[in-house]
Sequence to fold (364 residues):
Amino acid sequence: MRTLGASEHIKDNEFASFWNSLMATPYSAPSIDEYLRKRLMPVEGAIPHVQGIEMYGNSIPAGTVGGDLFEYINFQQRYDIDARIQRALKRSKEYLEPPPPGAVPRNSVDDHVEWLKSRPHYKPEMEIEYRNARSSEQVRVAEDLHELYSTAGVLVVDAQGHEIISAKIASTVHDTFHALMLSELDHRGKTTAELFERIKESAQEIATMLYGEVHPYGHFRFVNFGHPPPLVFSAEYRKFMEIDRSRMVQYLPLGLQIAEDDPDRNRYFSLDFRKRRAKSSDLAELTLLSPGDIFFLYSDGVYDGSDKEERQQLESVMREHCLLPAKEICNALLEYAVKRDDRLRQIGEKDRIDDKTVFIIKRN
Fold:
């Protein structure tokens, strides 16, 4: 056996000391509320850049963790748009080309053609028509994916309650949304009404949700499930503008309603069955017409969308801070909401305190 040198003994002693200290330090795994709190809060580095637009959001839970969730959907950061476009174009060409005789099907188109050939009334032109149709779908996917370079999404979820269970519900809605988004981008190249129909079908717990997409210079297209509707602040008139509510279709919260023609409707509890499924025309559209105009998105811990006096107070805060950057406007509105919570505690109505989320979209 080789004899250790003095320097090697020193290294061994240093390692032993380090190991003993490491083992003596108790390991503290993050609690579930700490995990959920970090998971539900986006980082500033994820804020998308849209031409002519500045945005910022923040959330304050009523306890250690809450049921509010907001997220920037930064398409360019989250997804490799170039690679998706190239894949769609490659599929478009591949779908047109029949495989060699006897070859294993390469894709879903080849597989379906094999099924067509097994039918008694098959004709060769049926294969040609089908391949052309599926090929053109992929060309459209590639074209629609280009739009994501100049688009940003915003997701706001408010699960019923404001404890760990609520945070878990919000987290589940978030995960479902992103799983379905991947499918949408693969098959459509964009978000469609089908995505939201599938979210409603899969929702088992009650939560409100608002998802919108911001386009250059303030065009905002969104869908709303029981969430307080956005407010639009006019820089010119320095007040919230009245919006025709007929332009803002609003569904019941997630977990409460499914379509009447849903094949699994008898497997779910629903307060009511919608007469039809969601269509693209059901998505609401608003536009910031002038520089300085602001979309104000919020959860009901900030404003429930109905109290006129509370709206006037928020309008006053907005008027005082509207010339500032989006981040400072957001923080001022949250600070006002927190001070209101202090008043509720003083008068013994702390049960009315809820999680608070503010999201500001400002046209530069």
In short: DSSP finds ten helices and 13 strands in the chain.
